[in-house]
Amino acid sequence: MKVSIVGASGYGGGELLRLLLNHPDVEVHQVTSERNAGKPVTRVHPNLRKNTSLNFCMVKELEKVDLLFVSLPHTQFMQRFDELSGLAERIVDLSADFRLKDMAAYQKWYEVEHPHPDKLTQFVYGNVELHREEMKKARYISGAGCNATATILPLWPLFKLGAVDTALPVVAEAKCGSSEGGNAVSEASHHPERSGCVRSYKPTGHRHIAEMEQELGHRIYFSATSIEMVRGILVTAHLFVKPEITEKDIWKVYRQVYGQEPFIRIVKEKQGIYRFPEPKILAGTNYCDIGFELDGTRLVVVSAIDNLMKGAGGQAVHAMNVMCGFEETAGLTFTGLHPV
């Protein structure tokens, strides 16, 4: 299948390109970068040396393909939807432009009036674990946010099977790698003398809250903090379960909902170094690791992902695989490294 990537010079687009170059069912036709047009992609993504001879092109040079990936900054795709949607029958977007179903939410969270409110319901939200059957019939998929993914996936089974006491609050805190903020933020983290160390990211009002509440149907109190890590997200969520719920019941919930999921792992060990999810051993993988600890009716849930994989490029490829009827794990079988 012939695919192209719009906006392939950023971290998300680069990770997507890395995966697609090794996908057994895909041929990468063109990749765009207005700033780097005409230059080899390896100038920006040196890890792809000897893996591709592609050069960046401009959007106006794009030819029609079977599927188009869009990895532009937020609000750009919605402004160019008419132009880009004519280039492919199917589109997978990595931005936030079509994630929310409520038009008013874009004004609230992104301070922009959505120019295509009629298209919002045509995009399937990008967590495969929640929307697999919809994706099989979809023309458009909108990739989920990385912090949203790391929060939604561990909590969704608990809401789905009615284990949560919904009268009480849910509080989640994410520790985030610098690559979540894009190339410039990551560069600053390696050279702190240029802008100071990466510090607090978003203690309140994070835009991904809109996705969490949309998918979980419950208010989420969420904070995100950048730490000295390039890749990865570690979420710790505190919620309350119904009084009759036991630890055995929590195990049953996760096994019932995620038992057959290829990219979900329940990590709760009694021995060893990594007894709970740890983002550094997930770098380059498409897994979401989930652990938990029950303290009376308070449940502490911990999850970890690679924000550029399960939170961006890997999730987009997984969604494409489902949409197009490919093997779900195609191009995504990297198991991670240890030690790191």
Descriptive overview:
This protein folds into 2 domains: 2-143 and 312-324, Rossmann fold, CATH 3.40.50.720; 147-305, Dihydrodipicolinate Reductase, domain 2. Helix 5 links the parallel strand 6 and strand 7 (140-142). The two termini are 35 Å apart. It is of the alpha/beta class. Helix 1 (11-21) crosses helix 11 (313-324) and helix 6 (146-160) packs parallel to helix 9 (209-216). The chain has 11 helices and 14 strands. The chain has a 7-stranded parallel β-sheet. Strands 9-10-8-11-14-13-12 form a 7-stranded mixed β-sheet, covered by helices on one side.
Question: Keywords for this structure?
Answer:
340 residues; Dihydrodipicolinate Reductase, domain 2; seven-stranded parallel β-sheet
CATH second-level architecture of the largest domain: 2-Layer Sandwich
Instruction: Note poorly predicted spans.
Output: 183-200
Number of helices: 11
Distance between the termini: 35 Å
Summarize this entry quickly.
The protein is an alpha/beta fold and 340 residues long. It is built from eleven helices and 14 strands. It has helices at residues 11-21, 76-79, 81-85, 103-109, 128-135, 146-160, 183-190, 192-195, 209-216, 247-258, 313-324; strands at residues 2-6, 27-32, 56-57, 65-70, 88-93, 123-125, 140-142, 170-176, 200-202, 220-226, 233-240, 264-266, 288-295, 298-305.
